[in-house]
Design a protein that fits this description.
This protein is an alpha/beta fold. The chain is 28% helix and 26% strand. Strands 2-1-3-4-9-8-7-5-6 form a nine-stranded mixed beta sheet, with helices on both faces. Strand 7 and strand 8 form a beta hairpin. Helix 2 crosses helix 3.
């Protein structure tokens, strides 16, 4: 089987690949990074097969504070236009949505903690998934669905939780990839946002529900297996 060249865009050091890195290692694909919080370099898009765009506390509209966002969006659009498999998580999904021409904006409520998402459309990617299941959220923004995309998941307070565009471009607002280590990192670095209400859990509530991690990681692996098949057998 062909080994994939996977490139990851990271915006902060505490929102990394989590269990995705385990999947990449197990399947012996190559992995490279662009760290926008350091001196960064973007690869030639022809050098990669996959692009994974991770999360971060900034918004897609924060270009004045983070000018690299302009270059990043152009690179994401170029990867999509060149037929690459592109996966975005949280901020990454919002960046993909904007790169595809959709509007990104603050949601009425932040969603931080373990809350259910609901399947909106059947897809073989989600074979054996429950119709509703808990995932880890940390987002304040939402997006309109890109034109031509398929709506995949929703939650009670955020309608557009996941979408698929042209079979090879996937946006996920939530964090199936989270591990105990990455969960702790996000809680420690985002503590100021944990102002409890109906849709924001406390640090102790978040860290007390690590029992969901294993099931979430299995779902992430199943999604990655599906995207791998789509990439290798178009």
């Amino acid at each position: 089987m062909k080994k994939l060249s996977i490139h990851t865009l990271m915006h902060v050091p505490f929102e990394g690949l989590g269990c995705i890195e385990q999947w990449i290692s197990k399947n012996k694909h190559s992995l490279s990074y662009t760290y926008f919080y350091e001196n960064y370099r973007l690869p030639n898009v022809d050098e990669i097969d996959w692009l994974i765009v991770m999360g971060g506390p900034m918004g897609v509209y924060d270009e004045a504070q983070y000018p690299w966002l302009i270059e990043e969006k152009e690179f994401i659009r170029k990867a999509i236009d060149n037929g690459k498999t592109v996966i975005g998580i949280c901020l990454g999904s919002q960046l993909i949505a904007e790169a595809l021409g959709a509007k990104v904006y603050p949601n009425k409520q932040k969603e931080i903690g373990w809350f259910d998402v609901n399947l909106a459309n059947s897809n073989t990617m989600f074979e054996s998934f429950e119709n509703s299941f808990p995932v880890f959220h940390w987002h304040g923004d939402t997006f309109d669905l890109p034109v031509g995309s398929t709506h995949l998941m929703s939650s009670d307070v955020c309608k557009n939780q996941a979408f698929l565009f042209n079979e090879k471009v996937l946006g996920l607002q939530f964090h199936l990839e989270v591990t105990t280590q990455t969960l702790k990192g996000m809680v420690e670095n985002g503590a100021s946002e944990l102002i409890e209400n109906v849709t924001i859990q406390s640090a102790s509530e978040i860290l007390g529900q690590t029992l969901h991690i294993e099931a979430n990681n299995r779902k992430m692996f199943q999604i990655l297996d599906y995207m791998e098949k789509i990439t290798l057998n178009p």
